Amino acid sequence: MGKPAPVEPVQAPRSSAFKRYKLVTFSVTLFLLFVSAVMYTTVHIATRIENNQLQIDVVGRLNDHAHTLLDSAQTIYLQNQEYSEQSVDNNDVALFYLNDIVAEQKQLKNQQQSFENLFSVFQQGGKHTTASTTKTVHPVELDSVQTAKQKMEKTWQDYQPLIHDMADSALITHDPQRFGQIAHSFAGKNPNDLYQPLESIIQALHTDIQQQITLLRWVQTIGIVASLCYFLFFVYFLMRRLTRADDVADTARRETEEIMQTVHNGLFLLNQDLSIGSQYSKELERLLGKKQLGGKNLLDVLEDIIEHPEDLEVAASFVRQLYNPRTKERLIASLNPLIRTPLRIPHETGEETRYLNFTFHRVYHDKDIARVLVNVSDVTHAVLLEEKVQQERGYNDWHVEIISSILKVDPLMMADFIVYTQQRNRKINEKLKEPVQVQADFFDKLQYISREVHGLKGDASSLNLQSFVLLAENLEITLKSLKDKNRLTGEDFLPLTVSLEELFSLTQTIDDLNRRISGKGSSAPTVTQQEPIKKQMTKFVAELAERNGKLVDLGCVGMDNPALNMGLKSNLREMAVQLLRNAVVHGIETPAVRAERNKLNTGHVRVEMQEDGDLIRLTVQDDGNGINFDHIRQTLVDKGVCTPESVTKLDTNTLIQYIFVHGFSTQSKSNEDAGRGVGMDVVHERVKQMGGKLAVATRAGAYTSITVTVPRKF
Questions:
Q1: Whole-number CA gyration radius for the chain
Q2: Is the pLDDT of residue 395 over 70?
């Protein structure tokens, strides 16, 4: 049995979880914001400290360049004096000093350019290369630095033209006196005007660094302490909340367990994949006769105990529809296949049959279908009670029907039927007891019983004993299933004996009731009807025609001959019933067909019994279809009796003989009235037993006449 593919259960919407944990979510968000603020402040302070360190490095290098500038200027000044003195006395020495001055001027220009670049970085920010890396320096915004910065800018503005002139080598040769004045003026400048602002800036940056480090320690300390306090508070709050939730959950769980332990129904939640939830009532295990049901597939649990496994797949489809939000629950409730479901529940002494109701109800989370609640109730007592009541009602109806039929039938005919039926029952019993040597013996038994049962059904139908007809019909179905088997055993006849026993029991019941009604054991008067057989056959044909949608008029002559003995009369009546059924079902056309053939809507059937010396002649004639030989040929081909080539060679007399073969029928489907291929076989067998003859006359579209001739002394 196929299992439905697993499907993930429907989850509860996220909004419900958010509402449930709103306070916790808010607290965590607030904590994250606080931590983010602390981290941001820490990074900001660290960045400022790093920038101050870079500015100190820049200012330090400016200080170094300032020293170099002043040293170069001093050197140029001194060398210029030497150059001036030697240019008068010794040109070669003067040339030596001149070269040194030019070299120092180049160095002075380089130092000036480096100083200006560094000073630009200090003022405006920019890239600064340290010993290992190149980093971006941002301008200093400290108020304590601005004064020193402005002083340094002014000082440098004073130094710049002097440095520019001192670095001009043309002045040495063209205007040595002017150059000497510039050098003397530069040398006369106070270097403290340049050093002091730089030292002030470095000191201010160091001070700010210390302040920022102190601030950073405070921020980190406060952050750690606050985080620890918040964590402890959060843990305390959460533990309290969890404790309360656990208490509520424990209370709910205990209440649920108490309910599940005491409820008299099987309750459980069914997931979309048909798995049973972990929580279920204790009664469920008792009802299903199984333990540890949590997590198991419902179909697997029921598979080996349900009497109708085909209901499981229907149940799976039903549950899938319950999970379909477009399907209305109340509209599909009637499709539930697990109502009054018979289950074979094992127990210590064997197994018992329980009737259980499985009812399904949707469980919603908000507007989504989350699960299905299943309620299992034991309705065995109610079902058995209803069955008992139904049996009692049926038994009473059965008795009423039989009594009604007995009252409507001639007492002698009813007595004749009972005696004849009892005789047949004994013969059937004797046939069943006969030893079996080969397989053919089994099938001979089936044919014999089929004839007798079919004959009994015909007699009962003519007397309107519908209960008897129904039992006989069921018995014929059992016989047909046995005849379809290739091989039979003695065990195959066991269900047959049960059905026969029911038929024999019913015969005895009819006999008892008839005795009471007829006056044997009762004061009820007995009324003998005139021409009872004619009356019963007329009624039988009318009911037969109505069931088959036909209109039939019956002519009955000579059937109530009092001179005939009971045995002969019973056999003739039995054959007449079978021939009449064949005439109405197979011979007479429907009113529409008869109208097309320019016939009267009502068909005519005549049954006549005549005495001819020591012979009795029974004739049944109808004005219907006649025997359809083409139909017989096609049936022989379909059943594999003949080939399409050989069947064409059969004459009409041979084809007529097949009508009386056991199991042969031109009708594709069987019903109460025809289709089993036994009725005409019963006639043929009775004629054979009585030592009589059969004669058939027919013409297509006109009539069929069957005459049975038997000895009077049978």
A1: 61
A2: no
